[in-house]
Known about the structure:
44% of the residues lie in helices and 20% in strands. The chain contains 13 helices and ten strands. The strands form two sheets. Strands 3-2-1-4-5 form a five-stranded mixed beta sheet, with helices on both faces. The protein has a five-stranded mixed beta sheet with strand order 8-7-6-9-10, sandwiched between helices. Strand 7 and strand 8 form a beta hairpin. Helix 3 packs across helix 13 and helix 10 packs across helix 12. The longest helix is centred in the N-terminal third of the chain and has 16 residues. 39% of the residues are buried.
Amino acid sequence: xxxxxxxxxxxxxxxxxxxxxxxxxxxxxxxxxxxxxxxxxxxxxxxxxxxxxxxxxxxxxxxxxxxxxxxxxxxxxxxxxxxxxxxxxxxxxxxxxxxxxxxxxxxxxxxxxxxxxxxxxxxxxxxxxxxxxxxxxxxxxxxxxxxxxxxxxxxxxxxxxxxxxxxxxxxxxxxxxxxxxxxxxxxxxxxxxxxxxxxxxxxxxxxxxxxxxxxxxxxxxxxxxxxxxxxxxxxxxxxxxxxxxxxxxxxxxxxxxxxxxxxxxxxxxxxxxxxxxxxxxxxx
Length: 284
């Protein structure tokens, strides 16, 4: 009798890692640990997370598929070694970038353009197996069009320069319990300004009906298509996206794609959902 195969899939960011355990005949089991990023964390830290937070909940597995931020090509071998040390019985261990994970999540084995739209933004041309081309996102100061951080930046710019209603500005200040001077100080003098700017997204989403707000969101996405996706010269390929910006503003994203001559396909809030859907449980 053939042994039941157990597959472990990960979607990892710097803050948290979502893990899915797949076994034939059972519903997927989901586990969360702290984030794992080999670019920012040393080997000992990563091994400790696996051994203390994950292995006791999972046990032995036959296959590990890890997709995460910071898993650059030169760091893939290190990440594979770390995963093998935690799961020595696993026959297959793979580690890839979060962008490839997003591509598998929204495109499966089909060619397409895969996008990550959250606090930051990224995209890649995907042939159904690997990323063929990537427009560098450059971060929220030099790039990251379409991201939550850039949306927050543009929203504050429009609000503080009088392009949005004064009443909305007063609502925001009351919501944040801050003054205009506090906002400027928070952006320029405090750490992690990109995350703080992206944290304005729920407020923006709650006021899409205010004149000028929805068009600002759409324009942010249109710039994402203009500055990133046009570089791939494949407007005929379907665009898929993961991330909070893509999910909560999906109507605006679809509209921006239409205006720029692209067609949206699958949109997922979290890559792990699409990774589970598209995982082929072979040899089971």
